[in-house]
């Protein structure tokens, strides 16, 4: 069951209070119902919501690999160092990031078609973007930053549908990339276990206060 918020607990200035409630009640749970699975329709809806996350220049440098076959889930559990809740969830989704600007041609054509850039500006911007991605460190950073935004969207979408979704970065990156057949220029960013809730979760551990983490004007 999700945590419930009283109306007065939701931000007083929220134009979309249900969205704020969703943000505040989302949990990274580990209690899944192993007898229930998500439907193909729900899986596709989760990916659709993930894919509207913001991304640099709208490059959308992400892919999603869903594993639901029982034997393949067993392998994912092993690659995730024995995290058994993945099997109980029934669906594992690897969020993958591009380390190069492989979508740039189509994306910048969209910019021009939409009248948001002229052809010359689009070509210049595309060249600059490709140059940034040519740096291995920058390419990896772009992959992780953009794909992580998509992963958060997916988790919020799951929560909005009454599902539990848990992110994991504790897994054998090389092993899972090989197991799932990732191209050499794409990297595993985050592994998500997604499925119907199995019931109550432990209380959320304390979070650092705003006074502790908010810095104004400088650190």
Automatic annotation (TrEMBL):
Gene3D superfamilies membership: NADH Oxidase
Domain of life: Archaea
Cofactor(s) this protein cannot do without: FMN
Keywords for this protein: Flavoprotein, FMN, Oxidoreductase
Compositional bias annotation for Basic and acidic residues: 201-219
Residues covered by region (Disordered): 195-219
SUPFAM superfamilies in alphabetical order: FMN-dependent nitroreductase-like (SSF55469)
Residue ranges annotated for the Nitroreductase domain, each copy included: 24-195
InterPro entries from the UniProt entry: Nitroreductase, Nitroreductase-like
Residues that span the membrane, as ranges: none
Keyword Oxidoreductase found: yes
GO function terms (MF aspect): oxidoreductase activity
Keyword Flavoprotein carried by entry: yes
Protein family: Belongs to the nitroreductase family.
Protein name, entry field: Nitroreductase
Source organism: Haladaptatus paucihalophilus DX253
């Amino acid at each position: 069951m999700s945590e419930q918020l009283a109306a007065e607990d939701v931000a007083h200035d929220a134009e979309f209070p249900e969205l704020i409630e969703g943000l505040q009640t989302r949990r990274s749970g580990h209690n899944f119902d192993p007898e229930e699975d998500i439907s193909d329709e729900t899986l596709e809806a989760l990916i659709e919501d993930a894919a509207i996350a913001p991304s640099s220049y709208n490059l959308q440098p992400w892919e999603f690999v869903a594993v639901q076959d029982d034997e393949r889930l067993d392998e994912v559990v092993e690659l995730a160092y024995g995290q058994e809740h993945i099997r109980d969830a029934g669906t594992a989704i690897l969020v993958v990031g591009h380390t190069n600007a492989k979508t740039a041609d189509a994306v910048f054509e969209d910019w021009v078609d939409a009248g948001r850039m002229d052809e010359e500006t689009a070509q210049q911007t595309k060249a600059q973007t490709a140059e940034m991605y040519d740096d291995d460190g920058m390419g990896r950073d772009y992959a992780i930053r953009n794909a992580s935004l998509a992963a958060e969207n997916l988790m919020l979408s799951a929560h909005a549908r009454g599902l539990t979704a848990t992110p994991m970065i504790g897994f054998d990156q090389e092993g899972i990339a090989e197991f799932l057949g990732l191209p050499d220029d794409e990297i595993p960013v985050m592994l998500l276990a997604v499925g119907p809730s199995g019931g109550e979760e432990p209380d959320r551990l304390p979070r650092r206060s705003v006074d502790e983490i908010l810095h104004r004007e400088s650190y």
